[in-house]
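Researcher: Here's the sequence for the chain we discussed earlier.
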Amino acid sequence: MDQLTIYTDGASRGNPGQAAAAWLILRGDDVLESDVLTLGRATNNAAEYAALNAALGRAARLCTPKETKVAVFSDSNLMISQMTGRYAVRSPDLLPLYEKARSLASVFAGVTYTHVPRENPYVGSCDWLCNNALDLLARPSRPVQKRIECVPIGIVHSPFETKEDAPRQGIFTDKPSRITIYEKYRDGLSGLCAGDKVFVLCWFDRAERDILKVKPHGHGDGKMRGVFSTRAPVRPNPISLTLVTITSVNDLVLTVKGLEALDNTPVLDIKPYYGDIDS
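Model: Thanks. This is the structure I predict for it:
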């Protein structure tokens, strides 16, 4: 017979107020799941039940319920007493939560409920998860920026004048391109050498920006897909990412191999390729 152990905690700041529910699910000493859920406005008792219900629902996915016994531990004396039948559930707000917990528990071979003090280390972990989540909610939110400014650091000089001239990806061309870096960014080139592999981020200023589905070339099943699952140049923000090899560095000019950008394409950034994390 399988055995799972559940620890839960709920917290409310204001009772009722902003609330959160957290739980740990263990098999022996192994923690199978540790999670927290924010609830909006709720009482502390409702948060305790929310934690129990979430944990029972998740536990059922981690085992074969009919072959599993579950031991639930919580510092909520009210909830534990109600789930064991010592206390009746008189609150109309808690009754549906109690009935849901009974339903969720019924799929297991057996469920026991034990009250433990808040000092229990596992319950303490759940309490920390709740309060951390509530702390994050209490932080003042930053307004979403409506515009983000990118400043080109240089420009591409390539043999590709039109979209029809350019390869689908840089890997399909051996033709060299030059990237001229603007004078104010000279110091940023320090450390780059011939033979280095780098990612070049460009702004494809001639790409369409109102297309969200394309038929990718050479990948997938030939069906239409969202642009975010493809490398298509058309997208809301036409930022390209191409891995190139530097063949020479001459003052402010990098000559590279493997760049598909059109002539006079703005360059936004250059980042090194690290084989241990990028391959």
